[in-house]
From TrEMBL:
InterPro entries: CheY-like_superfamily, OmpR/PhoB-type_DNA-bd, Sig_transdc_resp-reg_receiver, WalR-like, WH-like_DNA-bd_sf. GO terms for biological process: regulation of DNA-templated transcription. GO terms for cellular component: cytosol; protein-DNA complex. This is Response regulator transcription factor. Keywords: DNA-binding, Phosphoprotein, Transcription, Transcription regulation, Two-component regulatory system.
Amino acid sequence: MRVLVIEDDKDLNAQLADALRETGYVVDAAFDGQEGHFLGDTEPYDAVILDIGLPQMDGLSVLEQWRREGRTMPVLLLTARDRWSDKVQGIDAGADDYVAKPFHIEEVLARIRALVRRAAGHASNELAVGPLRLDLKSGRVTVDGRPVKLTAHEYKVLEYLMHHSGKVVSRTELTEHVYDQDFDRDSNTIEVFVGRLRKKLGIDVIETVRGMGYRIAAADAS
């Protein structure tokens, strides 16, 4: 899953990006409103962390433009603790959630998990397809209770497919959501990751839809 962090404080931006990457997200970073708006307008993100007080273009303006342009990705606003009016304006502008500064990184991670999960229509942190289980909080994958050890990219491919269970996901879409903008993307590697996943999982849950991409069975109701 791919997240954009737009925060002009370089240290805080780096802290958020590092924590997200350690949790398994692909992360792009922007440090002003214009750059952030451009990335959100041209790249596919599963969620955005957006500071309100940005140079060149403030966060609320960025958000309002995205929503007017039909961009629907979940947005978590970063607000000043004493500016309750920012929170109201942010929600009215189309924000999905907010967190006040200063905050604990763990709270941001939990809120991003919830936004991504809800956007995909899931109520629980555990995604399940038959005997296959993926815990979004711990990153643990099991089949019939047996832990399955995956590489970072294998996990990202499986997580994206499970978030979109029952739907056909193209190789291009997978590539866009498991690599950041600076990575030399090669959609052929997706086939390699899918092949490895099938072997490691040992169950037939990932279907190849000829000429279109891949589909994993619909997730179990939770």
